[in-house]
Structures are given as C-alpha cells and as structure tokens.
Amino acid sequence: MDLNRYDVVVIGSGPGGFTAAVRAVQLGAKVAIIEKSLIGGTCLNCGCLPTKFLWHVLKLRQKIQKSYKYGFKVNLEPIVFSNILVEKDKNIANLRKGMRMILASYNVDVIEGVASFRDRNNLMVSNYERNSILEIFANKIIIASGTSPSAMKGFVFDDNRIINSTCALNLEKIPRNMLIVGGGVVGVEMATIFSGFGCRITLAENESCLLPNEDREVSEEIKKNLTKQGVDVLVSCFDALNDINKYEKVLIATGRIPNNNLKLERAGIKTIGKGFVETNEFCQTNVSNIYAVGDIAGKSLLAYTAQSEGAIAAKNAVKMNSISANNFVVPQVVFSMPQSSSVKVSNFLEYRDIIYGKFPFTASGRAFIENERCGFVKCAVDKASKKPLAFWIVGAYSDELINVASQIIKSDIYYMSRESIFHPSFSENLFNAYEDAFDRCVELVKK
To answer: What topology does CATH give the domain 162-252?
Structure first.
C-alpha cells in the first residue's frame, strides 16, 4: 500500500470540506481532500444548485408569461423537461470544473474513494473502480462528509416510485402526479418546482403548518401561494402514505441522516443524536486532532454555515484553536414562488418587549412597476433599544434582501435611517417595515 503524509486531510468536498481545504493551504498546510463521488458534494450536485437552477427556469417562464402586460407578444412552446435537465447538468458540470481548477491552483491533492479511519491519524481510502486501497497519514483531519436523505419506517427508496430529492432532481420527465411527504424546506421547494412544470402535487405535513420552525404568518402565506399554484396542501396529516398507489411518484422529504460510515469508533470519535459527530466551539471533536464541519456536525444543515465552519476548522487545525464558531445570525431561505426568507438573533426568545412592523409589497413602488406585488416584509424590534432583532420576507428577491437584513442585525445598529437606503428599491421595504413597528411609516395609510 502507498503511504502519503499530509498536514491536513479533509473528508468530503462539499461547501464545508472545499472551504476547509483551500483555507488550510492558504495558512501554509499541505492538504489532501478525499471525495467518494463528485466534487462539490450534495450542494452542487444534487441539492442547492440544481434546485435553484430548476426554480430559475420556472421563474423565467413565469416572467415571459407576464410580459404581455408590458406589450410583448410571446407564444411559449410546450416545455421539454429533458432539455432543461441537459442544460442543468451542463451548468453543474462547469461549476464542478471550476472547483477542481481552484483546488488544483492551491495544489490540493484530490483523492477519489471511500474514506475510513484506521486510527486517529491514519485513513484508508478504498477505490472500488480501481480495486485499490490507499493509506494516508494526517496530522489533522477535518470530517465534512455531509448527510443523505432519510427514508421513513417501512418505506425504502427504490428510485422508481418511492424517491428522494436527489432522484427527483434527475427525473427525465415530469410525473402525472406526485405525493410529497414532508412540508419542510425541501418539500416546499419540490412542490413549487414540479407543480410549476405541470405535475399535480399533494404536499403532506404531519405538523399543523408548513415549515413548522418558521414564523406562522410566513408559513400561512406560503401555503396560500402553493394552493393558488394548484398544490393540494395537507397539514396535520398522518395517513398520507396509506394509499400511495394512486401516485406516479412518492417523494419522501422528511429529513436527512449523517454520512458517518467512516469507522469513527476506530479513532474514538463520539457521536450524538442520530449519529452526528459531536463538536465544540472550535469545530473540534473529542479527539484533539480531528474536526468536523457542516451537516455531519448536525448544528446547522446549511451550505453557508458549513463554509464558515470549514474556514474556522482549517484555521484551528493549522493555528491551534485560535477562533470559535459564531452562528448568532444565520439567514434561511425557501425557494417557494415567490421565495421567502428569514433571519433573527439566536437569542430572540430572550427578548420580552418586542414590537412588530409589516410592509406589504403592494405598497412598494419598485415592486409595483416590476409586477412583483405578492408578499411582505415583517420586522421585529426591541421596543426599549429600537434594535432590529428579526426580519421575515415573502416576495421577489427575498433571497437577496435577507443578506442585507442579516448585516443590519449583525452590525448591532440601533436605528435605521432613510437617507442611507436607495429609492426606489426592494431593499427599502426593510426600512419601511422597521418604521411601521413605531407607527411612523410614511408609505402606509394611517392606522
């Protein structure tokens, strides 16, 4: 067997692992990254990016359909979904190629195969296609192996009728009808996309509302919009799987499970909950030279928090625990139609005297002229200090607006001012919602 020695070895090339590998090289380390499938992990290949691509196509089609209001005469041909998939795959492949170029520019060794621990410093990489086993030694190891869709008890993914989100994103044609079990982010996004392309969708959630962890007003707005789009939304539903034979496809979107089949016990690594790797504030496991970031650590299953943790873990691995993770303000986005987003301080529930403001897109001049009048901005403010604590947005560009809202909250400002926000814009709706909390928004009729 070959023996290779590195300062840092990263397991997984998703957002967390990719960032960790590049940052470790920037800090002077010799680095290898191990990937069992495709560079980019779930986010690039079967998660964030392909989902947003299909959503973008749907949104583009919607804009073309609405263009008659501005004097355009357009006749749309029927959609050939297979052509859209070809373009999706081409875009993803180009992005993947770009990631490989970046890794190569930093001299990161990309090792293809399945990693497993031999002990706290040694890894075995099995490449079944080449029938080879490679042994790697690392001073520090960063686990970024991610998660996979979880099935439900009594149901097994067969990639035919019972499918997961990965399979759904690669369907060659739009099904006649589909049952989606799970009204979280993935379920709502899949319902939005496939209903938009002509599939009859039933979306079932066993909680009393969609997106149970979201603001109730936002979840009700999303439910209303999905219903308008022809989705049959069922909440407090516990028997959705009793009659699956009437559906061409059944998509189970009820969560994800950690990819922890790395023989962690050989290195003495502790896991918690459903098998997530336990970490401290430095992204460090109970084994001092081993770190874990992103989904596998189970703290926040988001690509961008994984990127943040990847950079932090890399610095701590190379520079001896010099920085701690801080997920105090983390935005969340759902690509419904229109999209929705939210952000709030992590200790939001500790505030006792909160006032709320709300500004509808129907009152926004910019939204009006762009014919994007659906939705609103809602703002929570600490009454005593006037500090903005949270924003919820349903409407066009909310996925971009939430970044502005995040920075407003994170900057710890105690006053939002009119002169610093361009007009006419969508982002000024954040300011108007903030002003409405104090009953002084000049863009709304007197209450």
So the answer is: FAD/NAD(P)-binding domain (3.50.50)
Contact 323, 312 (CB under 8 A): yes
d(CA 194, CA 175): 8
Nearest Cα neighbor of 203 from 190, 216, 218, 212 is 190
Closest CA to 123 of 111, 131, 115, 114: 115
Radius of gyration of the chain (CA): 24
For 95-125, how does the pLDDT look when each residue is reduced to its tens digit (9 = 90+)?
Answer: 999 999 999 999 999 999 999 999 999 999 9
Neighbours of 175 (CB within 10 A): 20
Give the number of residues written for the chain.
Answer: 447
Indicate the class that CATH gives domain 332-436. Answer: alpha beta
Pairing of the two strands 340-344 and 388-394:
antiparallel
Residue type, 190: M
Q: Are 394 and 338 in contact (CB under 8 A)?
A: yes
Inter-CA distances, 5 with 10, 17, 28, 238, 339, Å? 13, 18, 15, 52, 46
The pLDDT tens digits for 313-363 are: 999 999 998 899 888 899 999 999 999 999 999 999 999 999 999 999 999
For helices 81-105 and 15-26, the axis angle rounded to 10 degrees is: 20
**Sign of the CA dihedral 49, 50, 55, 60?**
positive
Q: What is the pTM of this model?
A: 0.95
What topology is assigned to 3-149+257-319 in CATH? FAD/NAD(P)-binding domain (3.50.50)
What is the number of helices (H) and of strands (E) in the chain?
11, 21
| Dist. CA 245–CA 215, nearest whole Å | 34
